Amino acid sequence: MAITDWPEDERPREKLLARGAAALSDAELLAIFLRTGVVGKSAVDVARELLGRFGSLTCLFAAGQSDFCQSPGMGAAKYAQLQAVLEMARRALQEQMRHRDALTSPQSVRDYLRLALAGKEQEVFAGVFLDAQNRVIAVEELFRGSLTQTSVYPREVVKRALHHNAAAVIFAHNHPSGVAEPSQADQALTLALKQALALVEVRVLDHFIVAGGASLSFAERGLL
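Now predict its structure.
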């Protein structure tokens, strides 16, 4: 059955307009993005199949063009549209961070980092550099690959902090395993970075681990 044949209050677009986007399921939101289905399947059916294939919205967003385009009805144009939507969301969140105190609006930082790092196939270590009012100066990917104390160089992090004239920094990295728990190496690395940055009077405010749709804060865990 086509979506146009559904009761009006069950159609994703009308439901969003009447009740807000938060009232929709992942599949319904994705169906609005897809706009149309394929022969014999509504946009909601196609959305459910995509989520079933990739496992979650996070994994779908992180999919490469080749994997995405292997799904029925998906092509380069739809992949480009999805990447454009994601980049707009990242930029909007980054803009929010730039105009707010990162400590009084931590959800903006957390949301941005989840969108930027979740679903990546290899570990990425990023820094959010802040001024004296805890407003975002810059966000940089600092290192990529297997992250250990030998692959994340405190000296290079200090140089980037000084380059931005930062007063504080928030670190973040992802766990491709999907488990947002800090390892002993994560804790040792955070301590080493905190000690190195203290020498130049730059505070480490937090370190987030992003995994799947979840994120963990070192500050909230009492690990800083």
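The chain has ten helices and five strands.
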